[in-house]
Amino acid sequence: MYTHRIVIVDDEPSIVKMVQLVLQKEGFQHIHAAGSCAEALDTIARHEADIVLLDIMLPDGSGLELCPKIRALGNPHILFMTAKASDLDILTGFAMGGDDYITKPFNPLEIAARIKARLRRIEETGTSFPRELPPKAQASAPTIYRFGRFQLSVAAGELLVGGAAVPCPAQEFQLLLHFCKHPGIVFSKAQLYESVWGMDGLGDDNTVMVHIRRLRERIELDPSEPTHLITVRGLGYKLSKEQTGV
C-alpha cells in the first residue's frame, strides 16, 4: 500500500474514474479528484498532495496557467495529462513547472508505472516529498554536495546557490542529485531519462533538455555559458568535477 496523496485534475468523469480505479488496484489509497482550476487548488492544498495528475484543458482555465499556482502551494510531482502532443506544447508544460507528461489517449497502467518509478527514485536516492523526511535522513547527518557556487542538501531537500535558498522542483532536484553523485561522467539524454525518471521512453529528449536548461538557470552565473552543467557535443551532459566538499 502507498500512503502518498494523489489528486487527479480532469473535467472528464470517465477518465477520472478509470485512472482512480487503476491506481487503487495498484495500491494507492489516498486519491482525490477535481474538475476545475478553482477546485484543484482547494483540493491540492487541503489534502497536501504529493502527486498531481493535471489535465491541460480545464473548463475554467488552462492547466499550464494552474501549474505555477500549484507550485506556490508546495512541491508535488506534477504529471501533465494532455491531448496536445506537439513539441511546443510539451516544452511549454515543462517551462511552467511540470515534471513529466503523458499524452491522451493513454493506458492508466502507464500512469501507475510512472508514479511507481518516481517513488522508486525517491527511495533509492534517500530524498523525499517535502512533508515526508525519510527515517534514515532523520537519524543521520544530512549528505551535502558542494560544487562551485551551489550546494545540494539531500536530507533537507534544499538547493543553495551563492548561499541563498533557490526553489527547485522535485524532478529537477533528482536530476541535479544524479549529476552530483557522478561528477565528471557524461550521460546521454536516454541514460538520464532512464536513471532519473525511471522509464525508457521514445521522444523524451525534450524532457531532459528542458530540465537541464531550468537547472542551468538556477545554478549558473550565465546559463548560456555554463560552467557546472556542461554539454559534451554529440554525447550528452556532465557536471564539472570542480567540487568544494561533500
From the alpha-carbon coordinates, what is the Rg to the nearest angstrom? 18 Å
Q: How many extended strands?
A: 13
pLDDT average, as an integer? 83
Query: Which regions are unreliable across 5 or more consecutive residues at pLDDT < 50?
Result: 130-142
Quickly give the CATH architecture of the largest domain: 3-Layer(aba) Sandwich
Question: How are the strands ordered across the major sheet?
Answer: 2-1-3-6-7
Q: Please, what is the CATH homologous superfamily of the largest domain?
A: Response regulator
The number of distinct structural domains comes to 2
Protein name: DNA-binding response OmpR family regulator
Domain OmpR/PhoB-type: 142-241
Modified residues (4-aspartylphosphate): 55
InterPro entries: CheY-like_superfamily, OmpR/PhoB-type_DNA-bd, Sig_transdc_resp-reg_C-effctor, Sig_transdc_resp-reg_receiver, WalR-like, WH-like_DNA-bd_sf
What is the secondary structure topology, with strand pairs?
Elements: E1 2-9, H1 13-25, E2 28-34, H2 37-47, E3 51-55, E4 57-58, E5 61-62, H3 63-73, E6 77-82, H4 87-95, E7 100-103, H5 108-125, H6 135-139, E8 144-147, E9 150-153, E10 158-161, E11 164-166, H7 170-181, H8 189-197, H9 205-219, E12 229-232, E13 236-239
Parallel strand pairs: 1-2, 1-3, 3-6, 6-7
Antiparallel strand pairs: 4-5, 8-9, 9-10, 10-11, 12-13
Helix pairs in contact: 1-5, 2-3, 4-9, 7-8, 7-9, 8-9
Modified residues (4-aspartylphosphate): 55
Domain Response regulatory: 5-119
Domain OmpR/PhoB-type: 142-241
